[in-house]
Amino acid sequence: MASLSRALRVAAAHPRQSPTWGLGPRNLSSAAGPTAEKSVPYQRTLKEGQGTSTVAQGPSRPLPSTANVVVIGGGSLGCQTLYHLAKLGVSGAVLLERERLTSGTTWHTAGLLWQLRPSDVEVELLAHTRRVVSQELEKETGLHTGWIQNGGLFIASNRQRLDEYKRLMSLGKVYGVESHVLSPAETKTLYPLMNVDDLYGTLYVPHDGTMDPAGTCTTLTRAAAARGAQVIENCPVTGIHVRTDDFGVRRVAGVETEHGSIQTPCVVNCAGVWASAVGRMAGVKVPLVAMHHAYVVTERIEGIQNMPNVRDHDASVYLRLQGDALSVGGYEANPIFWEEVSDKFAFGLFDLDWEVFTQHIEGAINRVPVLEKTGIKSTVCGPESFTPDHKPLMGEAPELRGFFLGCGFNSAGMMLGGGCGQELAHWIVHGRPEKDMHSYDIRRFHHSLTDHPRWIRERSHESYGNLVRPRLLRLPPAQQPSCRT
Q1: Average pLDDT in the 47-76 region?
Q2: Confidence class of residue 47 from pLDDT cuts 50, 70 and 90?
Q3: CB atoms closer than 10 angstroms to residue 16
Q4: Nearest-5° angle of CA 408, CA 413, CA 419?
Q5: What is the torsional sign of CA 309, 7, 35, 270?
Q6: Boundaries of each FAD dependent oxidoreductase domain copy (predicted)?
Q7: Which of 33-42, 159-168, 469-478 has the highest mean pLDDT?
């Protein structure tokens, strides 16, 4: 079994070759199709998606003739939105999934949940996701979502980053998020396998953790169905019916599928990478692009059990606990586009490009040196959607009344899903979100930009590389986090 260090040497010596444990040479073109089955963290979901597509067998249940709301997409955002609509008392809400729940992008996500971000609104959104996944769903359904509370550790390898984490700790206190700034010695005690020689300190959040996409989405839909919502799998959407009212305003009238139509005044586009295609059915521009996102899963590591997840912003790498192993991933400066998004793609994966991925290996080995001699069990490279400002796309589309967006989550759909699903449901029912969601509102983009493919592509490509290496935040004293009245 090849090790991470060998992968690094092969990538350096032969830039267009992959290490010899099953991945052949791959051109940097992103038009490459999905590969055969790989070993991934979520075996149950992957196995359900293998073999001949079940779409030809017809929908999992008969389509209703009408619905108050139709949610398109059975990933994290679609399931969370359906659940929160049902909790708000919306009767007759329907979720349509073209394949099976979690297919496309959600099923292969790393599932990390970090509670602290520089934005107070995002801290609130993340807190709600955590409550739903770790407490509320299990109380409602009696089912375990797969939540694992193993904690999170942010790495500070310079003084400015440590100051940033101290500000995050202060913000967390306002919202009841427990966190601790640790010295290098304290970090070593907590995480004995970590190299702390180059550290200024770390930020430890003991109640961070990891979500399982299959368990979470299944439990969400069970809870929603208990309140009268319907989930219909194997039902691809083929069109959006639009009408023009007496005032010349375009409004949603219904949804067309391969197996019939549903009359509805409201559609929620939670189709992830495929959200742009769904938008085109309704004449709505959705400014996002699809790119490859990858991580590798290591062989067993002695002593890694129960360690917190690690995020090293300056090295642009994260280490996710995977039982007795680690998942190693990050966000590259030169990500690969998925040029031709296929509507047949469901539970597939791409070949991993080791030349692109090499930077994460270097950062991971520096942080946890035992990885240098640790074997690689599997590679996971799948599609994710990214936006020009690395913020989600939410709210009602300005071009079409009754057409809402819940997409473009820049690989953060699992951890933001609960909070954003709640806000989106409130937006639909009450006409506005509860929180200040202006930075997520689709209307932040002028129509000249949403109709500018080159700008969307280039800006989204740039924003991808900034996701795990955010700019250091330097606030004047007057703008330091404080309690809101």
Answers
A1: 78
A2: very low
A3: 12
A4: 110
A5: positive
A6: 69-427
A7: 159-168
Token pair, residue 140, equals 């409602």
pLDDT of residue 296: 97
Looking at the predicted structure, is the pLDDT value of residue 422 above 70?
yes
Instruction: Please list, residue by residue across 290-307, b when 16 or more beta carbons sit within 10 angstroms of its beta carbon and e when fewer do.
Output: bbbbbbbbbeebeebeeb
Share of the chain above pLDDT 70, in %: 84
Q: Which residues contact 13 (CB under 8 A, 6 or more apart)?
A: none
Q: What sign does the CA torsion over 349, 371, 116, 315 have? A: negative
Q: What is the pLDDT of residue 284?
A: 98
Question: Which has the closest alpha carbon to 216: 129, 322, 124?
Answer: 129
- Residue found under tokens 């602290």: 116
What is the per-residue pLDDT for 138? 97
Query: Tokens in use for 6?
Result: 């060998």
Match 């071009």 to its residue by tokens.
399
The pLDDT of residue 358 is 87
Strand 209-210 relative to strand 317-322, pairing? unpaired
CA distance linking residue 73 with residue 96, whole number of Å: 6
Contact 79, 221 (CB under 8 A): yes
Spatial CB neighbours of 274, under 8 Å, sequence gap ≥ 6 = 73, 104, 341, 343
Tell me how far apart the alpha carbons of residues 103 and 82 are, in angstroms, rounded to a whole number. 17
The two structure tokens encoding residue 226: 């208990």
d(CA 151, CA 189): 15
CA distance 360 to 298: 13
Q: How far apart are the first and last CA of the chain?
A: 58
In one-letter notation, the amino acid at residue 89 is G
Positive or negative, the Cα torsion across 106, 84, 408, 119? negative
Hey, what domains does the chain have and what are their CATH numbers?
Answer: 69-466 (3.50.50.60)
Structure tokens at 322: 């995977």
Average predicted confidence (pLDDT) for the chain = 88
Task: Give the pair of three-digit tokens for residue 41.
Answer: 């963290």
Q: What are phi and psi of 69, to 5 degrees?
A: -140, 135
Q: Tokens in use for 75?
A: 């990933």
Residue type, 36: A
Mean pLDDT of 411-433: 97
Q: Say if residues 472 and 313 touch (Cβ distance below 8 Å).
A: no
Q: Determine the pLDDT at residue 319.
A: 98
- pLDDT reported for residue 1: 54
Residue 468 contacts residue 313 (beta carbons within 8 Å): yes
Strands 267-269 and 69-72: parallel
Examine the pLDDT at 151 and tell me if it is beyond 60. Answer: yes
3-state SS assignment for residue 427 = helix
How many other C-beta atoms are found inside a 10 Å radius of the C-beta of residue 197?
8
Residue 251 has pLDDT above 70, yes or no: yes
pLDDT value at residue 9: 62
pLDDT of residue 57: 78
Tell me the two tokens of residue 108. Answer: 């292969």
